[in-house]
Design a protein that fits this description.
7 helices, 11 strands
Length: about 220
């Protein structure tokens, strides 16, 4: 089985795990990165727990086996077993890099206490922040060392600003950039879709209580 970074790179280039209904259990690359990543008929569970426990717990879930890894009963059991917390299952989107400078007027910010940035720094390494009139663009290294983007558009932001920020993220990097979007956040999903991102899967990340250590040494 390929490593998590190799798997993510393949998915970013539309090479998906085989849709054979199986579950792959991979060890965490670092203390922070634990969770469940779902692709078409193939799920990856990132955990340092015993793979035999994972498979036995999945087998005990009374539902379609394809749905078991994202079923609330399995996720609750995994959270209880690991002592971790979680927020929501996110849709995963990915955008390939684009040439040229961003059309938006962006200025990089050295430091900010904005809630979006504080949250990003708990989950990612090497976080960089750009400001635009009415919005923020945040990029950092998250799960498996992948580049992850987050956007913040203020109430008075110009129409299309979210799309413009998402598009700019593809121009500020030379590798695929990933976005995690709550399925109910239609506005954000539309912004990433309009900026050329593709939906590739879903995931639930498990956070260590008291904050997660960074992964700079092992995920970069």
């Amino acid at each position: 089985m390929e490593t998590l970074p190799e798997l993510l790179d393949a998915v970013a280039h539309d090479r998906f795990p085989p849709p054979d209904g199986t579950v792959t259990v991979l060890p965490q690359l670092c203390r922070r990165d634990a969770g469940v990543l779902a692709f078409t008929a193939h799920t990856v569970v990132l955990t340092d727990e015993d793979p035999a426990w994972v498979r036995a717990t999945l087998a005990a879930v009374d539902c379609d086996p394809l749905a078991a890894p994202m079923h609330p009963r399995f996720l609750t059991a995994l959270l209880d077993r690991t002592g971790r917390t979680a927020e929501t299952v996110d849709a995963l989107w990915v955008g390939t890099p684009l040439p040229g400078p961003p059309a938006l007027a962006l200025r990089e910010i050295a430091d900010t206490g904005h809630a979006r940035v504080v949250r990003a720094r708990r989950r990612r390494d090497a976080v960089r922040v750009w400001a635009a009139d009415g919005g923020l663009l945040v990029i950092g290294r998250g799960v498996g060392g992948r580049l992850e983007v987050a956007l913040e558009v203020e109430g008075g932001g110009a129409a299309g600003l979210g799309r413009g920020l998402a598009f700019a993220a593809r121009q500020l990097t030379d590798e695929p950039v990933w976005a995690q979007v709550s399925p109910g956040n239609a506005r954000s999903a539309r912004a990433f879709l309009a900026a050329g991102y593709r939906p590739v899967g879903a995931e639930l990340l498990l956070s260590a209580r008291g904050g997660s250590a960074g992964c700079s040494g092992s995920c970069s």
